[in-house]
Amino acid sequence: MSPSAPLYGLTALFDTPDALVHAVDEAVKRGYTKFDAHTPYPVHGLDRRAKLSPSKLGFFAFGFGLIGTVTAVSLMTWVTTTEYPMVIGGKPFWTWPAFVPVAFELTVLLATVLSTLTMIILYFKFPNIGHPLHDTPYMKAVSADKFGLCVQADDPSFDEKQVRAFLEKVDGTHIAAIHYDAAEHGVQRRVFEPQFLALLAGVAIVTAGAAYVTLNVLLYLPPFDFMMEQAKLTPQKASILFADGIGMRPPVKGTVARGFLPYAFTGKPEDAARTLVNPLLPTETVLARGREKYLTYCSPCHGNFGVGDSRLRGQFPNPPTLHSDKVRTWPDGSIYHVITEGQNVMPSYASQLGRDDRWAVVHYIRVLERAHQAKEGDVR
Q1: Does residue 185 share a domain with residue 196?
Q2: Fewer beta carbons within 10 Å, N or C terminal of the chain?
Q3: What is the pLDDT of residues 146-164, one digit of tens each?
C-alpha cells in the first residue's frame, strides 16, 4: 500500500490466544470501540471480552426461514385441496405430515440463500468487495498460526502514536500500519456495471444450457433412462400377471369411494320413511340449490310447480301431482327414497344428484307444496 493512501488502522500479531485475549481486554479498558481480533480458529468467549453486540443476521435468517415455511405449507395446501386434489391411500386432501419434508427443505433453502445474500450485501457492502486487510502479511499470518489485533483509524480514541505504544505494551509483534489502496479508496462501485451484467448473463446462459441438456438429453441416455425402461404396467394395458389378463384392477370388494355413502334402504321404503331425516336446514342457499336441481332434473316430468304437467308430450304417462294429500303427508324420508331408488317408470336419480342435492330438492318440494296451499298468514 502506498504510505500516502489513507490509514485504515494498526495491526499486531500474537503467538498465543491468551496473549490476544489479554490485548483485547486492555483495548476495551482504554476505550477503543472499533477494533477487531483475527484468529486461525474460533476462540470461544473472545466476542464477549471484546464487548461485541450479537449479530442481527440471525433475525434475518429466522424471518427468511419463516417465509419458506409459510410459502411451502400455503402452496401445498392450495395444490392438494383446491387446484389438484387427489385421493392418495385414502388420506384426507390436507395431510400435513406430507408437507413436512417440503416445508423443511424450503425453510432451509430460503434461510441459507437469502441470509447469505443479506450478509454479502449489508455486511460486506457488495459490490465493494475489496478490503485493506486482504493480501497483507498480517492476514496471511492470522490465517495460518498467529493471532492478530487490528485497531481501526476511525475509532474516536485513535491516535497512531498512542495505539502503536499500546500494541507494544501488550507484547504485540510485527506492528504494521495498514493503508487503503489509493486506487480503490473512495470508489463507489455499481452493481449494474456492464462487466458484472455480462458475467451474470454468462452464468445464466451456461446454467440454463446445462440444465436443458441434463433434463432433455442425458436423462434419456443409458444408464439414466432406467426409470423409463423399467418393467411397469401402464393404464389400459393387458397384463400377464393376472389370470383375466386385465392390467387395471377393480376396487377391492366392499370399497367405498370418497364422498359416496352406500344407501342402506334399498328396497325398504318403509324403513326409509321411518328412519331418514333431512339433515339440511331450509336456508336460502339450500332452497336455491334445491330449486336449481329440481328445475334441471324433476321439472321435465313433474312440471315447474309440481302439478304433473309433463313437458314430454305423451312420451311417458304424466306423473301424479306432488300436491296430493298422499305426497304432502309423506315424511321427507319417503320423498328422498323415491328420488334415490326411483318408482314405477321414474328411474333413480342417485347418479345425477348427490346426497345433499337430493335433500335440497326435498326442501324445495316442500316449498312448492306450501306455496300451492298457501294461506293468508303465509304472506308477509
Answers
A1: no
A2: C
A3: 999 999 999 999 999 999 9
